[in-house]
Automatic annotation (TrEMBL):
GO terms for molecular function: methyltransferase activity. This is rRNA methyltransferase. Pfam families: rRNA_methylase. Coiled coil: none annotated. It comes from the Bacteria. The keyword Transferase applies. PANTHER family: S-ADENOSYL-L-METHIONINE-DEPENDENT METHYLTRANSFERASES SUPERFAMILY PROTEIN, TRNA (MNM(5)S(2)U34)-METHYLTRANSFERASE, CHLOROPLASTIC. Keywords: Methyltransferase, Transferase. It comes from Sporosarcina luteola. GO terms for biological process: methylation.
């Protein structure tokens, strides 16, 4: 029986999280959306862990709450920008996940993640991240504003020193119609601040 070794972006992102997040840790879902990643993270952290799930749309948080069911007690649903993560999270985190773009299945595709707030959030989360922890960023660039966010993100992660953070880009090259790709950041040295990026 054959086994798929080269996973699509979202399953690969979850494999990375599963390999690094421990039960009892705090983690961040920076873009709650419809709650799939929030649910996944809530299962990973277990009864003693905590997920901080951010979204700027109430509809997204309501969808996420409906998806969580009995795991709701493990999650703080936060109606705010992920750029303000440091207002809500004041402890080390085991990992964080981003899905950039717009809310899937939404009628209003003009509400999208933006380069400035995305980079601010990643910058702050790197300071909170445990050594060996990972931030995954699923990048969708086929919509209006997507290419600008993609380019800003890639420019930012290239400024991170290799002694502090390992950065990979993972993508399937023969997929059609602007498939997403993954950027993953692994913190390899303890630090609270990375190089300031304006």
């Amino acid at each position: 029986m054959s086994q798929i070794l080269l996973h699509r972006v979202l399953p690969f992102s979850k494999r990375l999280m599963s390999a690094t997040i421990l039960p009892g840790e705090s983690v961040v879902d920076a873009t709650a959306g419809n709650g799939n990643d929030t649910f996944f993270l809530a299962e990973l952290v277990g009864e003693d862990g905590k997920v901080f799930a951010f979204d700027i749309q109430q509809a997204a948080l309501e969808a996420t709450a409906g998806r969580l069911g009995e795991l709701t007690s493990r999650v703080n649903l936060i109606l705010d920008s992920h750029a303000d993560v440091d207002r809500y999270v004041n402890q080390p985190i085991g990992g964080a996940m981003f899905n950039l773009g717009y809310l899937p299945y939404s009628d209003d595709k003009s509400i999208i993640t933006k380069p400035k707030s995305t980079i601010q959030a990643i910058h702050k989360l790197l300071g909170m991240l445990k050594k060996g922890g990972i931030i995954t960023i699923s990048v969708y660039d086929g919509h209006d504003g997507g290419k600008e966010e993609r380019d800003a993100l890639l420019a930012y992660v290239k400024t991170l020193h290799q002694a502090d953070v390992h950065v990979i880009r993972y993508e399937l090259l023969n997929q059609r119609n602007n498939p997403p790709f993954l950027v993953a950041l692994e913190k390899v040295r303890d630090f609270e601040e990375v190089v300031r990026v304006d």
